[in-house]
Amino acid sequence: MPPRKRNLQTAMKTKDDDKKVMKKFKTIPANSIIHFFCTKTKQDKENEENPPKRRSTRSTRNTQSMAEEGGAAPSPIKEEKKKLAFVKYRGAIKYYTDGNEIAEASDSLIQFVEKQPGDGLVPIAFDMEWPFSFKTGPGKSAVIQICADEKCCYIFQLTNLKKLPAALVALLKHKRVRLHGVNVKNDFRKLGRDFPEINSDDLIVNGLDLGVWCNEVCETGGRWSLDRLANYVVEKAIDKNKKVRMSKWHVIPLDEDQLMYAAIDVYIGQLIYRELERRAKLKEENEAKFIEKNGEAAFKAVKALGENFLNEKAEEVAI
Q1: How would you classify the pairing of strands 137-138 and 132-133?
Q2: How crowded is the C-beta side of 231, counted as CA atoms within 13 Å?
Q3: How many helices, marked H, and strands, marked E, lie in the chain?
Q4: Quick one: which H or E segment has residue 92?
Q5: Do 122 and 167 meet the contact criterion of CB atoms below 8 Å apart?
Q6: Which of the ends of the chain has fewer CB neighbours closer than 10 A, N or C?
Q7: What residues contact residue 183 under an 8 Å CB cut-off, 6+ apart?
């Protein structure tokens, strides 16, 4: 009976193949066989749940995104974002719209700067606001925010000014003033375009971008927003309410929400500066101690391994 013979031959061949496979697996340790089948089952399950065309081609984030979000790379399986408290400002807000009042306030700030001990630079947080239209684009610079002391923020509304008061110009380009902020050079350039009495190059000389400084001190990478920098450096969140951020900054008077928004931007900037200043000093001290104890060659070797010397006990790093 030919059909039966063919089936018998097929069955015998299959049986012989099975024996060969089993003989092959006898030479492999049992643990390896179990691992082989478990791994395959797990992979098959993963492929069923995540078809290849829908899976991400990148399982980890790059250095830039890590720096911008202010933290280490999360687990590829699940990312848990740390909840941070919003910044709250309880200091004074001095709000001026008149040119003479702005000049008087600027004079008082100059006196504050010149009374500071020593001859070093005095950090002052700086920011600006202006109206924006999707039809016409950005409007003229409308508000300048300044914070030299965390207990007091100045809000100068420029709407009624055809020219900046001389005292304000003198404050901004004072040789002892270090204006700082995130992407602050762009603010300087816009202010110079809107008010020709300001030479943006003069402000850039002593100005400081907090994001660039953070990358230098903390050895991070990438570009920063003020919110992300606050998350990373002082572990605080900023309420960037779009309704307030995109509001009519040129309309007098500003409401309470606008004033608080403007004040927080420079208040948190001053906090970030102080913390980065503390870390920079700690880093410098730790590096000096390590070099004194272990030598320059050892210092370069440890740096090459990724040590940033920001740890409180970084001078005790072992090679």
Answers
A1: antiparallel
A2: 20
A3: 12, 8
A4: strand 92-96
A5: no
A6: N
A7: 209, 211
